[in-house]
Amino acid sequence: MKRIVIVGGGLAGLVAANLLTKCAEVILLEKKQYPFHRVCGEYISNETIPFLQQHNLLPDFEQLPRITKLWLTSVNGRKAELDLDLGGFGISRYSLDYFLFQKAVSNGATVVQDCEATSISFEGNHFVVNTTAKIFDADVVIGSFGKRSRLDKTMKRSFVEKKSPYVGVKYHIRTQHPSDVIALHNFKDGYCGISNIEEGKSTLCYLTHRKNLKEHKQIELMEREVLYRNPFLKHLFLNSEFLYDKPETINEISFETKSPVEDHVLMCGDAAGMITPLCGNGMALAIHAAKVASAVVTDFLDEKVSRADMEKQYARQWSQLFSQRLWAGRQIQNLFGSEWASDMAVNLARYATPVASWLVKQTHGNPF
Ligand SMILES: Cc1cc2nc3c(=O)[nH]c(=O)nc-3n(C[C@H](O)[C@H](O)[C@H](O)COP(=O)(O)OP(=O)(O)OC[C@H]3O[C@@H](n4cnc5c(N)ncnc54)[C@H](O)[C@@H]3O)c2cc1C
């Protein structure tokens, strides 16, 4: 039997693992141990629903909050409301990833946890994957190791040379927040999303420029000095129950262009390119890319296409489906995080609603 090694068990890796057990032996390597929290706004675009339902990859869907409206506030606290054409739903990554992990195991995948891949080499039509646990060989490798990994360095991917200035912070809270709304609150050099997830909880997650943290040294101080200047954020922080002792944080979040195929490895999800978080679409992209990668890998293992054609087809489809959306996300992010630009975004949503809706649409795909 052919063997597929999937490096990284986030959404892209877990979905690919679930799909590919039908055609090969699947080994998924994950450096952490499930279940675990991640920095993520946890709003999933509805474009994923047909696919997730078809493959039975959604837990308790009827119980999850359905999100149909966007509230946008500017740095100085002006507010606009927008209906979302497509909308989304909320579920924590803690629950969703854990569910997909269990599903992958029951479908026959071998999931090796606490196992970090340290290098991938390709020689003579075969891969060797070195890890902190043992060495694996494989016919196909899918790289789903997220936005930034030590592996990017060993693979000499060009984007890792550039330092990225963004930091992400996430909390689960209990607060008064309408279940059909995702709110995006601007603050100086950043923006903060809030929407509901399972069990009446909400996710509060923000992205900010590193210089904010450098200036204020501690997250709590930065929140008080910078985020609280938006009155909506101040109200949220002061009137919510915070459910973690400390927030989940990540840094070095990069939106640089990457390549979907690197040294014969098919890159999936953020490893192939990350959409700016304000679009609320990174998870949909990761799931969709896993679907596309799984289809071309299946054709390759069934000997319907050569390796070269599998790689070409994947790169072409990836680019057709996602390149434009990633670009649009980078442009729209420029409307966030400054007083005048966030005011302009609020004005667009208030007085030029079709233009604002069109902009939102540029970052979304069609249901798949
Ligand atoms: C602040 C912020 C807010 C966001 N909010 C949203 C949102 O509301 N909605 C949305 O759709 N998207 C959002 N996103 C984007 C979304 O989180 C990502 O696009 C999505 O998680 C990508 O999934 P992935 O599988 O590619 O990567 P990940 O989910 O990051 O998974 C990668 C996995 O690989 C593992 N790994 C890394 N290196 C190795 C290695 N060498 N060996 C083994 N394992 C390894 C990691 O431990 C991790 O589990 C947000 C992102 C940020 C930063």
Q: Could you describe the 3D structure shown?
A:
With 368 residues, the chain is of the alpha/beta class. It has one domain (3-163, 253-362): FAD/NAD(P)-binding domain. Helices cover 35% and strands 27% of the residues. Strands 3, 4, 5, 11, 12, 13, 14, 15 and 16 form a nine-stranded mixed sheet that branches. Strands 6-2-1-10-18-17 form a six-stranded mixed sheet. Helix 8 (282-301) runs antiparallel to helix 9. The longest helix has 27 residues, at 307-333. The mean pLDDT is 96. The protein binds flavin-adenine dinucleotide (FAD).
Describe this protein with a few key phrases.
FAD/NAD(P)-binding domain, 11 helices, 6-stranded mixed β-sheet, 368 residues, alpha/beta
Write the layout of secondary structure elements.
Elements: E1 3-7, H1 11-20, E2 25-29, E3 43-45, H2 49-54, E4 66-73, E5 79-90, H3 93-106, E6 110-112, E7 117-123, E8 126-131, E9 135-138, E10 140-143, H4 150-154, E11 166-174, E12 181-187, E13 190-196, E14 202-209, H5 210-216, H6 219-225, H7 231-238, E15 241-242, E16 248-253, E17 261-262, E18 265-267, H8 282-301, H9 307-333, H10 339-351, H11 353-362
Parallel strand pairs: 1-2, 1-10, 2-6, 4-12, 10-18
Antiparallel strand pairs: 3-5, 4-5, 7-8, 8-9, 11-14, 11-15, 11-16, 12-13, 13-14, 17-18
The structure holds flavin-adenine dinucleotide (FAD).
